[in-house]
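Run log, item B.
One chain of 225 residues. Sequence copied directly from the ordering sheet:
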Amino acid sequence: MPLVLRFHGLGGNGNQEISSTGYRGIADREGFILVAPSGAQGSVGAAWNVGTCCTSDRSVDDVAFAKAIVEDVKKVANIDEARVYATGFSMGGGMTHYLACHASDVFAAFAPEAFDLLQENVNQCNPPRAVPLLSQRASNDNLVIYNGGRDCLTGVCINFLGAVNTNNTWKQKNGCTNQTAQQGQCAVSTQCTDGVEVGLCTTSSGHSPENANTGWSFMSRFTLP
């Protein structure tokens, strides 16, 4: 069966994410395993190391941690290794982007919410294959601003690309054309390398978890090549 890793926001935890996310109900309905890990400590609680922030111990390797979780689950469950997915909210969305950059050998598709690529990470983001990714972003997000910019809330200043520039960066990295399809609130580039797709869903939900059905419906269509 498929496996979905769901990453919490800054200061959250895995138990909270399991109970609050819509992914739990979808997992029961669709028949996939859902795992929500807890991050290491940061300046304002549990966090993920996405290269430029946000764990207190900068040596934490959360990419290796995510891959180790997959290996642990494989020991106790019959996992379809071609259908392992990553999603997350806020800082967890940042971790999802980071895994798309650095763990496309394990994760088939990605659905980050309420977070963008960081300017500091773009040059190091060179996945060896095209990666399907659907980002859900609120135009009225008052914490991770839709248009991007500098943010120092965690005590470490980072620079968000913004929702549109993040989407354009993923389109460029995945060799997408300008061919897009409007799917509700989502604009999806449908002509990318190796049949992958890249999309941006623009909502007005503020800084909050986005539609789990939208994320799962997108990710579930893709498998590892």
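Observations after the first pass:
- The mean pLDDT is 95.
- The chain has six helices and twelve strands.
Flagged for discussion on Thursday.
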